């Protein structure tokens, strides 16, 4: 299958490590130019060096706090200027703190809103003038909670599902401009974030992190955590030229863990 990604220009948020970096790696392998963004300059520089060896595409980075509107404006402008345009936008953000409803005050709700929803809205808004020029692809990274709320993650459950509503609405609004937009939720993918959640849940239940991980794996029909590369390959298809008719949809990459239809 030809993905038609050579010389396409992609902007990926939260891409110095984890799923963001894995998605960047797959795009670089396919010949795309990729702009990395996160708050950690050292990790970004290391990721750029590593990913630049994987393909013919150019890899750049910009230190960005995606909770700040001016940072997002600068990031989008720099990406368009350096690459000559933007064809692909992948919105991604680290997960908010775990806890129940009574654990969080207004400030913490506001912080999660700005990180996990408003950042996506702002980046889409800034990128649209570039995406509209030749059509483009947007993928919003959410969570398996878009299909089934995760106990102890009320902030994530709230704002990840809001992303689905945003994407579904924009699918209709952006279709005349030949922009396809979809949402993808990872299940238990082997990242630092999942390791942190396993440790947090282990402490709550009075078990070891290893026992917690085993409990989680037992709920996955495929019997293991997914690898970041497996998740990234699916997203790569959605933002590629091979996807010409899929928009407004929500997908899980979870090894069959979520049982909802």
From TrEMBL:
Listed InterPro entries: NAD(P)-bd_dom_sf (IPR036291), SDR (IPR050259), SDR_fam (IPR002347)
UniProt entry tagged with the keyword Transmembrane: no
GO MF: oxidoreductase activity
Gene Ontology BP annotations: bile acid metabolic process
Transferase found in the keyword field: no
Pfam families with a match to the protein in the record: adh_short_C2
Keywords, comma-separated and alphabetical: Oxidoreductase
SUPFAM superfamilies: NAD(P)-binding Rossmann-fold domains
Similarity section: Belongs to the short-chain dehydrogenases/reductases (SDR) family.
Protein name: SDR family oxidoreductase
């Amino acid at each position: 299958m030809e993905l038609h990604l050579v010389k396409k220009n992609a902007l990926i948020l939260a891409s110095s490590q984890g799923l963001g970096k894995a998605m960047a790696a797959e795009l670089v392998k396919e010949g795309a130019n990729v702009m990395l963004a996160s708050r950690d300059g050292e990790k970004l520089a290391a990721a750029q060096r590593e990913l630049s060896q994987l393909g013919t595409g150019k890899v750049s980075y910009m230190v960005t706090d995606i909770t700040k509107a001016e940072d997002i404006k600068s990031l989008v402008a720099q990406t368009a200027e350096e690459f000559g345009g933007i064809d692909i936008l992948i919105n991604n953000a680290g997960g908010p703190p775990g806890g129940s409803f009574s654990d969080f005050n207004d400030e913490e709700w506001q912080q999660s809103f700005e990180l996990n929803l408003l950042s996506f809205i702002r980046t889409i808004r800034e990128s649209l003038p570039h995406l509209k020029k030749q059509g483009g692809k947007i993928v919003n990274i959410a969570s398996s909670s878009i299909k089934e709320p995760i106990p102890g993650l009320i902030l994530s459950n709230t704002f990840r599902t809001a992303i689905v509503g945003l994407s579904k609405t924009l699918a209709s609004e952006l279709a005349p401009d030949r922009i396809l937009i979809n949402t993808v939720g990872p299940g238990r993918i082997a990242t630092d974030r999942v390791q942190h959640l396993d440790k947090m849940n282990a402490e709550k239940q009075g078990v070891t992190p290893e026992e917690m991980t085993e409990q989680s794996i037992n709920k996955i029909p495929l019997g293991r955590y997914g690898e970041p590369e497996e998740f990234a390959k699916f997203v790569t298809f959605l933002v590629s030229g091979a996807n010409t008719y899929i928009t407004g949809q929500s997908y899980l990459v979870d090894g069959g863990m979520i049982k909802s239809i």
